Amino acid sequence: MRRLADQARLALALAAGKGSGAVGRLANIGGGTSFPGAVARRIDPLVLRKVAAASQARTALITGSNGKTTSCRMLAALARGAGVSVAQNRAGSNLLQGVTSVAVREAGLRGRMAAQLLLLEVDEATMRLVAPEVAPEMVLVTNIFRDQLDRFGELYSMAAMLEAAIEALPGQASAVLNGDDPLVAGFAPRAAARRVYFGLHAAGAAARADAGADAGVPEHAADTIRCVRCQHALTYHRVYLSHLGDYECPACGTRRPDLDIAVTAVQAAADGGSDVTARTPAGTVVVRVPLPGLHNVYNAAAALAGAFALGMLEPASARCALASLRPAFGRLEEIKAGDHLTVLSFVKNPASYNATLRQILQRPGRKHVLAAHSSTVVDGQDFAWLWDVDIEQLVPDLASLVVSGTRAEEVALRMKYAGVGTGLADLRVIPDRQAALDTALARTPPDEPLYILAGYTPMREFRRIMQRRGWVPPFWEE
């Protein structure tokens, strides 16, 4: 009798969640990326756990500070290329209700999913809630950078949250870790799970051109530069991106682990992406990564490692699997805005901001920029990290600048200290997002792009404005 009641409750939760998602899409107020999960959990708090248990799908979780959404999309593409059907939170809604919404969308009313792989991007702080409910076969950690310190705590607090998820994995599961990140590579050394390390082992300028660092010197905003065992300063043989690289501790001998998936060559492609060669236990894999930047090479390495850990890495299909990948919304996303071209970039911490600036500065011409940041709960209220962003490198190329968001005045102050206003570029402070966008577009010649650097909330606000104007489809359709 109790089993029938539980089944009825699950069916009601799934039906209500599906219905709320359909209503939201019809009313154009949401794409069912979060609200259906909240509705379903209100009726049956165990809905995610029940769907995961009732389905035959294997489960993989991807978390970390940067690169979760893109790595997840890349791994999904590799899995589909190997003939595996995938259910995922593609739009990046990675809190508990967003993860649950995937189960609501994909499961029938009996709680079973047809997909063979349940692939979930998960917020770092939400891992402790999601992992016990879905019993993942694989957990992949992309990296750890300083991010939302008011929410996560300092760097080592965030690391402890993720390390706990690794320690809880059973022996038949896999922990896929960025070997180039000293903090991530040192996670849970006595955990039962199999460990798979990925990273870069590419010599020469082709691998370092995007890094903005000397061969053995991390950039000034690097977060993890001390040994996780003895806290002695690390020595780097090569730095690829921020604190990611080939390191060792001269005091205790801790060093970068041997890489299971190692990028051995990176060659710039004509389309702005890269041809990436990786050494894997399945053989040499060559993939075309159509997205710019060394950070996307890291995302590809993470995806290849995840596919290997799941037994879904097929070298023959991998190249074609990633070749047609488009950037996730807000990740250097090119949008035709009437007569103008805008490049929308989501920047949320020094590492992501600096990587984006390097990509923008590699493009020709003077730079018209709209920078917008807010201090909502999801953005984080600690905004001190902006002072570690290398804004100064942008200033000589600035043609115009508009700042916006609830932290517009603070952004303007940072820009002033960087030298904006002392040269040709002038500064406009317009907190309202729509007015700021219109002003920035008006100041940008039609044959030159407008670069939008935005935190999470402003990025979504700009995209909603663009959606109303018919410039972009809803983000959940991307």
How does the overall form come out from the CA principal axes? globular
CATH-assigned homologous superfamily of the largest domain: Mur-like, catalytic domain
Low-confidence stretches: 204-209
Radius of gyration: 22 Å
CATH architecture of the largest domain: 3-Layer(aba) Sandwich
Tally of DSSP helical segments: 16
Helix percentage? 25-40%
How does the major sheet shape up?
9 strands, mixed
Alpha-carbon distance between the two ends: 44 Å
Class per helix and strand makeup:
alpha/beta
Q: Count of DSSP E strands?
A: 17
Strands of the widest sheet, in order across it, are 2-3-1-4-5-6-9-10-11
How would you describe what is shown here?
This protein has 478 residues and is of the alpha/beta class. The chain folds into two domains: 54-323, Mur-like, catalytic domain (UDP-N-acetylmuramoyl-L-alanine:D-glutamate ligase), CATH 3.40.1190; 333-477, Mur ligase, C-terminal domain (Protein-Tyrosine Phosphatase, Chain A, Alpha-Beta Complex), CATH 3.90.190. The protein is 36% helix and 20% strand. It contains 16 helices and 17 strands. Helix 4 crosses helix 12 (315-323). The radius of gyration is 22 Å and the shape is globular.
Task: Please describe the topology of this protein.
Elements: H1 2-26, H2 35-43, H3 47-54, E1 58-63, H4 68-81, E2 86-88, H5 96-106, E3 117-121, H6 127-134, E4 138-141, H7 149-152, H8 155-167, E5 174-178, H9 182-185, E6 194-200, H10 205-208, E7 235-241, E8 244-248, E9 261-268, E10 274-280, E11 283-289, H11 294-309, H12 315-323, E12 333-337, E13 340-346, H13 350-361, E14 367-372, E15 398-404, H14 408-418, E16 427-429, H15 433-442, E17 450-454, H16 456-468
Parallel strand pairs: 1-3, 1-4, 2-3, 4-5, 5-6, 6-9, 13-17, 14-15, 14-17, 15-16
Antiparallel strand pairs: 7-8, 9-10, 10-11, 12-13
Helix pairs in contact: 1-2, 2-5, 3-5, 4-11, 4-12
